[in-house]
Design brief:
The structure is a single chain. The chain is an all-alpha fold. It has one domain. Helices cover about 80% and strands about 0% of the residues. The protein contains three helices and no strands. Helix 1 runs antiparallel to helix 2. It starts with 6 loop residues before the first helix and ends with a helix.
Length: about 100
């Protein structure tokens, strides 16, 4: 029965199937590792982008404050105060309690 010529094609077919399954399994493991690595990198990039956006809001507030308040030779009008308040609220939404603390 072991020398039966019909057993060779079945053994060959089983061997090929085993190799294909192993190859696909290794491929899945490889792509899973790459996926989780890229997912972690994306998370870190999002955190960095959020920090950059926050820094931009603080910088915008600082520019407005310097231009409209520190360099002003007159009393600060209502529109300027409203503009500053809006800039502060924009920075607070980004996670800072008070952009004035960032100016120091």
């Amino acid at each position: 029965m072991l020398n039966n010529p019909l057993n060779k094609p079945v053994f060959l077919l089983n061997s090929i199937c085993l190799v294909v399954v192993l190859f696909l399994l290794i491929g899945n493991v490889f792509f899973a590792v790459k996926y989780f690595g890229l997912k972690k990198e994306l998370s870190q990039t999002k955190i960095a982008l959020d920090a950059q956006k926050t820094n931009q809001k603080v910088l915008d507030f600082t520019k407005i404050f310097i231009r409209e308040v520190l360099k002003s030779e007159t009393e600060i009008d209502f529109d300027t105060r409203l503009k500053l308040k809006t800039a502060v609220k924009g920075a607070e939404r980004r996670g800072h309690s008070n952009p004035m603390e960032e100016i120091h």
